[in-house]
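#random but structural
TW: two for the price of one
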Amino acid sequence: MSNEPRKTSQLFARKPLALLLEEAKGENRLRRVLGPVQLTALGIGAIIGAGIFVATGAAAHNVAGPSLMLSYVIAGITCIFAALCYAEFAAMVPVAGSAYTYAYATLGELFAWIIGWDLVLEYGVSSAAVATGWSAYFQSAVSKIGIHIPKLLSESPWAYDPKTGHFIATGSVMNLPAVIVVVIITAILVKGIQESATFNGVMVAIKVAAVLFVIAVGAFFVNTTNWHPFAPFGWTGISFFGHRVAGMVDPGGSPVGTLAGAAIIFFAYIGFDSVSTHAEEAKNPQRDVPIGIIVSLLVCTVLYIAVVAVLTGMVRFDQLDINAPVSTAFKQQGMGWAEGLIATAGVSGITSVLLVMMLSGPRVFLAMARDGLLPKSTFGDVHPKFRTPWKSTILVGIFVSALAGFLPIDALLHLANIGTLLAFVIVCAAVLIMRKTHPEAERPFRCPWVPFVPIMGVLTCLMLMFSLPVANWWRLLIWLAIGFAIYFLYGKQHSVMRNQSS
């Protein structure tokens, strides 16, 4: 099949691989400064932190109980399928854009737009959820030295009550610490990728040490009776647009159980795919990006399972704190000094997660702007000195700060997950398509066991998507509808591929 776009099917015109690689050259490309260690650290920086320090408490308390350990195994296996597909594409097409770029080369422009717009939602909402968790740990840490944030500025104006299935007012006006940290991270990201990677490396070292501390010390306080019942909410938890298929639902109609827990804490794993967005900044992307993706995923999966086992063994699942579960668990065991230490490390760890998440979104915008689907003067503008997409970084910072300041963490976690899973479905499907349409393309890294791995990636991701509350499907559809409006009103008319073929 020809690589050239056809006028009769311009919506599905595919971008030739040769053109993708050519665009990565020249003055407007990003600086190649990242090696395999830095890329792996970026992956670990995004993965460790959100799951352990933020998502664990809510998922164990409300959805899975101690069986959250198995939830992490299920989510980890799902991610391995997707990671192998990501690694193949990242080595083939080492340019900015991640799944957006892969979709453009395989499925065509319209699908590329859908996945690009979805990635922006994924990274933006994930960043907001992480910033909300950062705020809880920051307030826990500074409270040890007598500093307390006023109630009006300490949290979202709303909170989700799983017992009633409704949102309730908290009495707060906004989550000011979350907004402030987003502003600071935005400024760091505008400055440059080298500085961002160095800062991230320091943060990763601190939080890995904290995670190992939690495992080593917390193991002495595990009471195995806290693991009974192991799956208090059941083993499944699958629904189809609000209609229960298997398992239990909470009073709000949302599925609960081990599979439902995997869908919620899937948020904790999304960091590995952000590594692929930095392929254009890798020194040797064909080798280094697959290493960064796979190693970071394997390391973090093992650590996650160990921490969840310790945490649910230390404290009964229904007594875990939702916002800062790890530090509070040590406090409940009478180790106040450890609570402060872990809260401080949690602040560092979550900061690096926030940095990597907010690093990724502007690079997707950059790839879309290069293709004419977004205004190049704004989203495609690379700073002449810092070599970063500075304008889109600032816009993403404004979007994330608004979400973090006013929305509760529960809603943010669910919305981030469904966007991520949709991205993974498209990437796994694209590997199958690419093997058929471009069998001759150079693949420095080949996804093993094709078609088994891509097919299992699609099926497991869809299974987890249907384990999320129906409200998240509607939010995703609304976001995609907004994206379609932008595409047909602007992107379609300004598409570089469309104009070249006309």
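TW: number two ↓
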Amino acid sequence: MVERPDSSLPETLGALRSSAWVSRPVKEEIRLNAVARIRAGQTLFPGILGYEDTVLPQLEHAVLAGHDVIFLGERGQAKTRMIRSLTDLLDEWMPIVAGSEINDDPFHPVSAQARDLIAEEGDDTRITWVHRSDRFGEKLATPDTSIADLIGEVDPIKVAEGRYLSDELTLHYGLVPRTNRGVFAINELPDLAERIQVGLLNVLEERDVQIRGYKIRLPLDVLLVASANPEDYTNRGRMITPLKDRFGAQIRTHYPAEVQTEIDIARQEASLPEPAESGLSIDVPDFMEELIATITHLARSSPQINQRSGVSVRLTVANLETVVAAATRRALRLGETDVVPRVSDLDALISSTAGKIEIETLEEGRDDQVIDHILRGAILTVFKEKFSAESVRQVVDAFEEDLTMSAGDDLPVSAYTAMMAKTPALAAPVAGLVGDNESDAVKASAIELLLEGLHLSKRLNKDSVGGRASYRARA
């Protein structure tokens, strides 16, 4: 909740004139605040990961140049987050003429209401202060969006009250005028009908609006930011050329190039249970986080998945939350307090993955098979990164001597502890992966990765019944 402004702030136009406050255009205000942050060595957009050397420098250039911006990128590439973070570069508080619907600058009012009020009351005109969080407007572009939504319309109620149609006071302002002296965002801009896009031309270039042919000029002060999917923007030509030409900066976003960046984003965004609230101890091993992020990266390169719609970072976040939920359910059923995801919990990811990817196949019912193939590919990839052939040789040799092992979501941690005690060959590769000081629950997770990786690399056989898997030698 935003705190009330300092009571020492001016409350009348006369007091404001006597203060140190200076009226600036919104782009100049943002630029000066950005300059101050850069000079102080502060980041302009905290919480935006993976763009430090690519997108963010371009966005900083646009901010310093005072440009309107359009972001091009697939879903889940932090476009909306970057747009909303621009408000942090606004002054914390901004004065407006009290009662103004469009945030009139007390020194340069643009609405008839504010001009008449100042002409009547002069320096006694009351001033109110608006927090920067209220200086942001946003509209998801849909085919049914109208000019009235964005710009405004004649209010029939005000006409019925006795005003003339030519009176500016009959207008009901749309979203753009109401965001005057702030940041206005249009998400998925190409989805706007072309005739509506035309209505934005003056906003971007001449900085005014025209409503129903009235000779009303509102010189708005707005930073306009938009987002679009490249498929809609370039291939289908759904954005009119004059509007495209009026954006000063076009910035292409992308998915995280590194698995570790994907992990960092998932850690930041995932909503996991608080230990104090659940009475459980949640620990997601590094190799399980890497496995979950690798699933997403493999999906982005899979020919069986529609890459034009993208594979969002939200897939990684949802899968992390789901695998923790599966491990939590298992721990509760087995009466354990340590929640540590295992490979056997990955079956739960089919539900959280299916809704976030578009599989390109003509055969019905193959979705689960495609997802399962990606899951197994991720397990094998992480296994090969974490274990060398030499480190697992003694484990394979132990299986050659008629050893069998079971794994599954119905086995308690104690069962895996017993496996390690019975099979000394497990100790070295498990310790190499997680160390000697990790909990037994983490070691149980490491054992499952080891066993499943040996099976997928064709060094062990596996028999599965329900949620239980039995591993044995290949011979």
